[in-house]
Amino acid sequence: MSSVKNHALESKLKRKDYEKELARLHVELVKLQLWIVHSRLKVCILFEGRDGAGKGGTIKALTERVSPRIFRVVALPAPTEREKSQLYAQRYLPLLPAAGEVVIFDRSWYNRAGVERVMGFCTEEEAKRFLNVAPLFEKFVVESGVMLLKYWLEVSPEEQTRRLEARIDDGRKIWKLSDMDLKSYSRWHDYSRARDEMFLATDTPWAPWYVVRSDNKRRARLNAISHILSKIPYEAPPRSKVELPKRQKRGDYREADYPFKFVPESF
Question: Is the pTM of this model over 0.85?
């Protein structure tokens, strides 16, 4: 999949144009948020992809202008020993959205089809069993009233290399590069096989996979957000005109003569 070139997506998107379009989409996301609360919708969005595919940046662009109380991001750490002994889906069920919520998974139950399978954290039998059960689990979720959207961010091997190398010497990004990322990096084709089998088993009519080409980060973010907005029917809910009320009069209040510890104004 990554070997297929798309020259339109490789072309540069100017920052000014990107920010203008992103601002427009943010307005629509706020409308969507109001509608989800108003209509008590339940929305679950999964983002999957290789290390460096751009999941975190896409999720940040999606959520930076909406309420974290409504758009809740879930990025689970490695399971505890207790969680490893539980029913596999048990860890994720309590995190699914209630009415008026959007839950966004930065990696999800599909860890079992990807990193766990490739890196040997589960047996091949457990991975196969997951692929058989996942469509049934998702059908149960969808039939319970949850709108489920699944996105795979597809990055090319060349772009992944560039992004991971950029993390090595960047103090802002070094936390993104773990020992597991380095081990995973060498297993490109194993991940490709796992991805292919995952799509074959779990790309269903009730919970299809959508693929976002992510070599161009700006285009990927805009395309993903636009697609999400297109998949959830919404309209601007009724709102009364907002006006700031008048402030109370000072009365007998006087500013306190207190030695406030102001932060040094270094800038």
Answer: yes
